[in-house]
Specification:
The complex is a heterotrimer of chains A (478), B (484) and C (95). Chain A is of the alpha+beta class and 478 residues long. Chain A is built from 16 helices and 15 strands. Chain B has a domain of 251 residues: Alpha-Beta Complex (Amidase signature (AS) enzymes). Chain B has 15 helices and eleven strands. An eight-stranded mixed β-sheet of chain B has the order 4-6-5-10-11-9-7-8, with helices on both faces. A three-stranded mixed β-sheet of chain B has the order 1-3-2, sandwiched between helices. The radius of gyration of chain B is 21 Å and the shape is globular. Chain C has a domain of 39 residues: Histone, subunit A. Chain C contains three helices and two strands. In chain C, helix 1 crosses helix 2. The chains are: A alpha+beta (478), B alpha/beta (484), C mainly alpha (95). Chains B and C meet through helix 9, helix 10, helix 11, helix 12 and helix 13 of B and helix 1, helix 2 and strand 2 of C. Strand 8 of chain A pairs antiparallel with strand 2 of chain C, so a sheet runs across the interface.
Chain lengths: 478, 484, 95
């Protein structure tokens, strides 16, 4: 049997507001337990929620970025259930009328094609607190600092057909919220969380199979692994005559397995109803217009512009626009290079990316800033140094030895472009290797590389390779 | 001193006839002496009261005093009072010392009013007789065997017995107006959104509204003036300017159009109460008002719709009382579920549990449309009834309650009959309209209330209409025997 | 609608209220009586009538994104049943 995987993602993005969605408590991460939980966050008697306008603005920004309809009127509802990290006994969320309606994003697939993934909706809600299970005399400790942090829950259509597609989609949304500066995207701290609804069905079948919801996927790698594990598990079950149960499964990264979570409530009956403490949220054209003006250039538009303005291929343009920071870095480097977009693209996606990866650094923490890299590229372009020497200079810059010009100067790496000087060396090499000259002249042209190597060796790599080629050819054929 | 109205008391304070400390001591002494039989207070905060009175006296000396500076007041125990127990009439919050003031409390403090203590109430404001309080029933000062009404029964009884010049109350389905009627005091439920709900422990958020309970409309105007106004901490608070209620009291009533809804005078209304109310309406005619018959055709649906909307909201509002962060926690919970279930079962009384269960049911899967949505649609019909009526009339008048105060215990076994005692008051809550109850001629020595319902934000008009009646009658000055 | 014992058990569990088995029948009867009152609503046709969740036609006001609250943990935890190291304690939550 051929199986098809069907995946939908629910992404919770913590919005980067200063204060909580319904209270004036700080949202800063990592404070002492319960020091950022105010009366409203704690659900003390008599306190009331008031909506943070910035959270609304951020949600609208996201909606506009995915081409979604912004609901002119949306409603906050209460989702009722008991849990110790949920102080009021209900979560304020949006149910029937979310602020962001249907939209879509395009994801780029391995084979270079793109695929449209539908976003069903995105709605505002409040985050819950945290349960700490380490032992307090056999009890659980509750920290409500996170309670009330604004979340944008982004729900996709079940449009993805592989773990790779799911990851591409999650990365796309991740890039988007960071481009929009509405979420810091930190998956370790839980600012960007993915839950995956996964099911399988025989290829060709229309109806969806029974799905499992995977939780605790706090990196893209775990998302991919967990989905693959789950797909295997479901296929195994079905092929051995069993039936998949609809349930929530927790991914355990240490054991690389998913396991069933005990159901929170036997029959989940959340008794949603409009929160009477909050009024309908109305968003007018003026507000949307204002937010529209604040929208930055988005990844897809940027990629197209890069392809066009910088004559980059699709692959490079895609890589360079993966994050707003990287794209900004690239453009600054192009400027500093004296307008060498292709060469700069090669360096950013090549040498720089490798070095960042090797040292596990983010682009924002790169020891070689965009100006420095541009400065280096400028020297390659004006033939002060060769590409090969440039790698040495780059390493030196990475080690903090100064900018390109200083390093070239200090190490005497300037390229030899004086024809006379190169001719002299060529003459010496030809004179010292008569046997090889004989071979070359008798038709063994492969040996040409040997002469180039000898000249470069003699000049410590500083001779301009093109000139070396030309002069050698001229000398050997005469 | 306790027979004077607030303006007179304020004048006395300014004239130096007595200090706020003396005034406060006078009422504290009355509470000590007289409240034993009434049980209208859950807690009395003598030290805090005297400290506030001293501060008020300084302010009176220094200048900058307002009309309420130095005037004692009692708060329904549903309003959070920083540093004072705020029980909401429940065992659940018997140990709850509020860490903040409700906006209403804060505003009255700022006005210089002196908090005497916290008044008894039906548990979480759920009741119409004050019998559901964890702290025991309140007795009606006019008849010790009768209930004071509820849920603001303690406030009503305390004002009636002149244990305080004024008290705050809250009204979700009649909880200010019904006890005001049964205790012979003036009670005003403002327009929804007029008074901040911040720090007022929620029963049904879309219906709850705080308001003043006083001996007279003129006093109510003074207290409402301090309570009312926009509060940025309450999303449902109205950004409407607050008029000068005192300045509006004296408008002439000539030409006032009064509507009498025929549904408020039909079956179920005690004949003597009807007569008393009609007599009061006659007084208005003499004041120059024009009386017309109107119809509020969906009145009979108000109680049914209310007993869906209010319990639904309450079932969710009261979920926060879970024994985790404050309030009652059961002994030795075996596990989390046990902690929840026993803390809540032990902390809440029967009526509260009943409403939580009904509300949970009405919101649960499969019943939401039939109950909750249906009730919200009916709410719309009821609201439209009033809208049409106010196209024709300025105010609506009728009895506040179908009868006078009933006997303690009489209806405790029959929740539905208890619910029907709010039959005339509930519709105003569903629509969000303001209503006031003022004492008119009693029946067999027991008070009767005239309810006046106004259009949105027409509190000034209601107070004016009530005040003009009180100028030509003296029912509001009567106090029960033994409390004069 | 008349509620039976199983209905009461289900909603009591949803509401996290312990109900003594001996009280089940009485509660079921009381709740059924209330529902009977409530079902008088069914007498009127509400087809086409919009549900009204709020008495006033106001819209949600938006708050400025400012941190206005300070740490009051000590005051808030002074009224808590059980805390340790700044955390509220509850019986072990099993996940």
């Amino acid at each position: 049997m051929q199986w098809e995987t069907v995946i939908g993602l629910e992404i919770h993005a913590q919005l980067a507001t200063k204060s909580k969605i319904f209270s004036g408590a700080s949202t800063a991460y990592g404070a002492e337990p319960n020091t950022q939980a105010c009366a409203v966050d704690l659900g003390l008697p008599g306190v009331l929620p008031v909506l943070n306008g910035e959270a609304v603005r951020m949600a609208v920004k996201f909606g506009l970025a995915i081409g979604a309809e912004i609901a002119p009127r949306s409603v906050f509802a209460r989702k009722n259930y008991f849990y110790p990290d949920l102080p009021k006994g209900y979560q304020i969320s949006q149910y029937e009328l979310p602020v962001v309606g249907r939209g879509h994003v395009d994801i780029d697939l391995e084979d270079g094609s793109t695929k449209e993934i539908g976003v069903t909706r995105a709605h505002l809600e409040e985050d819950a607190g945290k349960s700490l299970h380490e032992d307090f005399h056999g009890m659980t400790g509750i920290d409500l600092n996170r309670a009330g942090t604004p979340l944008l829950e982004i729900v996709s259509e079940p449009d993805m057909r592989s773990a790779a597609e799911a990851v591409a989609y999650a990365r796309k949304i991740h890039a988007l919220v960071r481009y929009l500066e509405i979420c810091d995207g930190n998956m370790q701290e839980g600012s960007f969380r993915c839950d995956a609804n996964v099911s399988v069905r025989p290829r060709g079948q229309e109806a969806f199979g029974t799905r499992a919801e995977l939780k605790n996927l706090n990196s893209f790698r775990f998302l991919e692994r967990a989905i693959n594990l789950e797909v295997e598990r479901q296929i195994d079950i079905i092929e051995s005559g069993g039936e998949v149960v609809q349930e929530t499964r927790l991914y355990d990264a240490d054991r690389n397995e998913t396991r069933s979570m005990r159901t929170k409530e036997e029959a989940n009956d959340y008794r949603y109803f409009p929160d009477p403490d909050l009024l309908p949220l109305e968003i007018g054209h003026a507000f949307i217009g204002e937010v529209m003006k604040e929208l930055p250039e988005l990844p897809d538009a940027k990629r197209l512009r890069f392809e066009k303005d910088y004559a980059l291929n699709h692959r490079d343009a895609l890589a360079l626009t993966a994050s707003r920071e990287l794209a900004d870095y690239y453009e600054a480097a192009v400027t500093a290079s004296g307008d060498e977009p292709r060469l700069t693209a090669n360096w950013v996606t090549g040498e720089l990316a490798a070095a960042l990866n090797r040292d596990a650094l983010d682009i924002s923490a790169s020891p070689v800033c965009a100006d420095m890299l541009g400065g280096l590229i400028k020297r390659i372009a004006d033939q002060t140094i060769s590409g090969k020497i440039a790698k040495q200079v780059f390493e030196a810059m990475w080690r903090g030895e100064g900018d390109a010009d200083a390093i070239i100067e200090a190490k005497g790496l300037k390229q030899i472009t004086d024809s006379g000087a190169i001719e002299k060396i060529v003459e010496e090499i030809v004179a010292a290797n008569p046997a090889q000259v004989e071979q070359y002249r008798s038709g063994k042209e492969k040996i040409f590389g040997f002469f180039v190597g000898q000249v470069m060796k003699a000049t410590k790599g500083k001779a301009n390779p093109q000139q070396v080629n030309e002069l050698l050819k001229k000398r050997l054929s005469s | 001193m306790h027979t004077k109205n607030i303006s007179e008391l304020a004048a006395g304070l300014r004239a130096g006839e007595y200090s706020s400390v003396e005034l406060t001591r006078h009422f504290l002494e009355r509470i000590r002496r007289l409240d034993g039989g009434l049980n209208s207070f859950i807690s009395v905060c003598e030290d805090a009261a005297l400290a506030m009175a001293r501060a008020a006296d300084e302010r009176l000396q220094r200048g900058g005093a307002g009309p309420l500076t130095g005037i004692p007041i009692a708060h329904k125990d549903i309003f959070c009072t920083q540093g004072l127990k705020t029980s909401c009439g429940s065992r659940m919050l018997d140990n709850f010392i509020a860490p903040y003031d409700a906006t209403v409390v804060e505003r009255l403090k700022r006005a210089g009013a002196v908090t005497l203590g916290k008044t008894n109430m039906d548990e979480f404001a759920m009741g119409s007789s004050n019998e559901t309080s964890f702290y025991g029933p309140v007795r009606n000062p006019w008849d010790g065997d009768a209930v004071p009404g509820g849920s603001s029964g303690g406030s009503a009884a305390a004002v009636a017995a002149r244990l305080t010049p004024a008290a705050t109350g809250t009204d979700t389905g009649g909880s200010i107006r019904q006890p005001a009627a049964l205790c012979g005091v003036t009670g005003l439920k403002p327009t929804y959104g007029r008074v901040s709900r911040y720090g007022m422990i929620a029963f049904a958020s879309s219906l709850d509204q705080g308001g003043p309970m006083t001996a007279s409309a003129a006093d109510a105007a003074l207290v409402l003036q301090a309570m009312a106004g926009f509060d940025e901490r309450d999303s449902t608070s109205a950004e409407q300017p607050v008029p000068d209620y005192g300045a509006e009291l004296e408008h002439d009533l000539a030409g006032l159009r009064i509507g009498l809804p025929r549904e408020y005078f039909g079956e179920g209304l005690d004949a003597a109460v009807a007569e008393s109310v009609e007599e009061a309406v006659g007084e208005y005619r003499r004041l120059g008002a024009e009386v017309v018959d109107i119809s509020l055709p969906n009145t009979h649906l108000a109680v049914p719709a209310y007993y869906v909307v209010a319990p639904a909201e309450c079932s969710s509002n009261l979920a926060r009382f879970d024994g985790v962060r404050y309030g009652h926690r059961c002994e030795d919970p075996k596990n989390l579920e046990d902690l929840y279930k026993r803390s809540r079962a032990g902390g809440f009384g029967d009526e509260v549990k009943r409403r939580i269960l009904i509300g949970t049911y009405a919101l649960s899967a499969g019943y939401y449309d039939a109950y909750y949505l249906k009730a919200q649609r009916i709410r719309h019909l009821i609201s439209d009834d009033f809208k049409h009526a106010f196209d024709r009339v300025d105010v609506i008048m009728g009895p506040t309650t179908p009868g006078t105060a009933f006997r303690i215990g009489e209806r405790t076994d029959d929740p539905v009959s208890m619910y029907l005692s709010d039959i005339y008051t509930i519709a105003a809550n569903l629509a969000g309209l303001p209503g006031i109850s003022i004492p008119v001629a009693p029946v067999d020595g027991k008070p009767v209330g005239l309810q006046i319902i106004g259009n949105y934000f027409a509190e000034a008009r209601l107070l004016n209409v009530a005040h003009k009646y009180q100028q030509v009658t003296d029912w509001h000055t009567k106090a029960p025997e033994g409390y004069l | 609608m008349s509620l039976d014992r199983a209905d009461v058990e289900k909603i009591a569990h949803l509401a996290r209220l312990e109900v003594e088995p001996d009280d089940m029948a009485a509660i079921a009867a009381e709740l059924s009586n209330i529902l009977e009152l409530v079902e008088q609503m069914n007498a009127v046709d509400t087809e086409g009538v919009a549900p009204m969740a709020h008495p006033l036609h106001m819209v949600q006001r938006l708050r400025a994104d400012e941190v206005t609250e300070t740490n009051r943990r000590e005051a808030f935890q002074a009224i808590a049943p059980q805390t340790e190291a700044g955390l509220y304690l509850v019986p072990k939550v099993i996940e």
